[in-house]
Amino acid sequence: MSDTIQNEKFVELNYKVIDEKTGDVLVTVEYPLGYVHGVNDVLSEQVTKQLDGKKVGDIIEIPIDTKLLYGERDESLVYTDRIENVPQEYREIGMTITMENEKGEPRNFIVTRFDDKTLTVDGNNPLCGREVVFRLEVLTIREATDEEIDVGGAVDADPDLNEILSQA
C-alpha cells in the first residue's frame, strides 16, 4: 500500500486561498476536502498534477490565474443604490443577494459597502482580479473503496455534496 497520492486513492486536504500581494487569507475550509484522486474533478487539473506523489503533511502552493477561472473584472456588475431601497436584512457586508436578469437567470451579488445613504453590491466573484495562491495541506491518503470511486468522494459526506458529485 502506497502512502503517496495517486489515482484511485482517497485524499483529504485542507486548503486556503491567499492574496499574493497582501498575504491575507481570502478563503479557508471549515472541514477537510475529501476526494478520490484521478476520479473526481473537484480540483483543477493544474492542482491535481501538483498533488501526484505527495505524502501526508506535504504542503503545496499553486498560483492561480483568476482571469482563467472567473474572467476579467466587470465593473458593470457593481451597483450602488440608496439605502432606503434596500431591505434591512441585506444591510451587512459580505451578505449574498441572488438577483435575476431579464431572462430569469440568477446571479449572486455580494454587499461590499454600505453607509447611512447608500449600499453597494458586486456581481463579480470575490477573487476576480486578484493574484492568489492556492495552499493545500495533505491530511489523509488511503485506498478508496469501490463505492467512493463510484461517487468520487466520501460516501458518508454531506448528502448535498454526494448528490452533486453523483450527478456530475
UniProtKB/TrEMBL annotation:
Keyword match Isomerase: yes
Predominant localisation class: cytoplasm
Catalytic activity: [protein]-peptidylproline (omega=180) = [protein]-peptidylproline (omega=0)
Cytoplasm listed as a keyword: yes
GO cellular component: cytoplasm
InterPro entries: PPIase_dom_sf (IPR046357)
Enzyme class: isomerase
Protein name (Swiss-Prot/TrEMBL): peptidylprolyl isomerase
